[in-house]
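Database export, one record per block. Field names are fixed; values are copied verbatim from the stored entry.
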Amino acid sequence: MMRVATVLVFLILATVRLEAEGGSTLRAGDAFELHVGGIPQEYANDFAVKYKLGLDGIINVPMVGGLKAVGLTPKQLEHAIEEKLVAGKISAHPTVTVTIDTTPANRIVAVSGGVQSPQLLPWRPDLTLSSGISGCGGLTDFSSGRGIRIVRAGKIIGPFNLRDVQVHPVKDPKLVPGDQVIVPE
């Protein structure tokens, strides 16, 4: 029960931080909501749906068309849609809001192998390799902490030595949603 409460508090704080920073970039598989103001209500309802970025990273926005969203921050996507609405003479002063769905199914990091409690961790902007391993209870007695790899978008990054990244925090890589951390036993 305590663990569930801790995870819920963590998710709430991560959501607040993401919204405050406007900060993470959109990635394939991300889900988000789009709300548009400054246009007639009958048109605004066309925008009020949940969007999910496909592998191509393009979304189809009513009255705007296809728009590459992958790699953009929510603020950048808002601005791009606003510009298209103005250029298309749909609205002189639109206001667009993008709200990323930060539920664990959409923004997670998997940590497996030689950690005390292998698990899926909710992603947050300050999540690093060492804090992710720490969030799983640290290394097992059988893991040296060497040869750690990150699988990101099908590519292997690493190897990393946990002791090195703890001694030199600048070498501690930030994790991104969808990362898989593999800690050798």
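Remark 1: The helical segments are 2-21, 41-47, 74-87, 129-135, 162-167.
Remark 2: The chain is about 30% helix and 25% strand.
End of record.
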